[in-house]
Design goal:
Elements lengths: L2 H8 L9 H7 L4 H18 L15 H14 L2 H20 L5 H7 L18 H13 L3 H16 L3 H6 L5 E2 L4 E5 L5 E5 L2 H14 L8 E3 L5 E5 L2 H15 L6 H14 L4 H8 L4 H5 L4 H10 L11
Antiparallel strand pairs: 1-2, 2-3, 4-5
Helix pairs in contact: 2-3, 2-5, 3-5, 4-5, 4-6, 7-8, 7-11, 8-10, 8-12, 12-13
Amino acid sequence: MTKNAITTRASKAIRVDQNAAAIYVASLGSESGRRTMSQVLNLIAGNISGNADALSLDWGALRFQHVAAIRSKLQEQYKPATVNKALAALKGAIRAAWQAGQISAEDYQKAVSVKGVRGETLPTGRELSSGEMAALLSACEDDKTNAGARDAAIIAVMYSCGLRRAEVIALDLTDYEIESGRLKIHGKGNKERTAYITGGAAHALADWLLLRGDNSGALFVSVNKGGAFGDSRLTSQAIYNMLQKRAQEAGVKSFSPHDMRRTFVSDLLENGADITTVSKMAGHASVTTTARYDRRPEEAKRKAASLLHVPYHGRG
């Protein structure tokens, strides 16, 4: 089928419950995953036909040659990891089309046989140093309002448990057992795991709970400018804004919420924790994912580079 044929079919209205992209996105377990893959599929649809988006394209019309062409075009513009993520979304939509009877099994198998892009890119993000973590918590301690105690607890729990933002805001008071320090985490794909709050993180959380009280509901609630508690659950954007605010107060270089998670993994591995255990603690589907967070090889390269002597003494 030609690109023009796909364009023509894309111009016709397709019911959402019959749209393969919509079916695929709805099957994803997390809100962030659904949002990301929707954006990726919109990008792919626009590349196939300038007037199409994910909800208007006829994904069942795609064949091997179309997927191969899309792969080639994406490879010209994006890094291998991004291309492979896009291919995963594309194959997911085509699989949904096959399951809905919109493409034959033979054409489906040929279309999804296009291989991913090989290559390595430098790891994204960064880790926070122990000094930066201390500065962040100190900034929260200096804030004597309820927000200061809450933010210190959030930062301590995010770091010590390696939580994603969505996992932080999903926590309920009943998910935490004070006596044992056990925390039940609601992870991606409706998968639950446990973590244990110890040491300074336990102290920070205890200080917050003393103020929060034992009312049922979210573990971390909103706090207005006057310091009064709200009854609403925090949003992902609120977590992001809080971390940026505390970083500015602490004089810490800007970082993403996910960098807290990277720091959690790297610090555990640096201190001798087994990578399989760390993978389970992080809620990763495979150890391969955990390994991408490991920055020890970069530190090893830095130390190796310092062994070399460049005999340059300057012009002064």
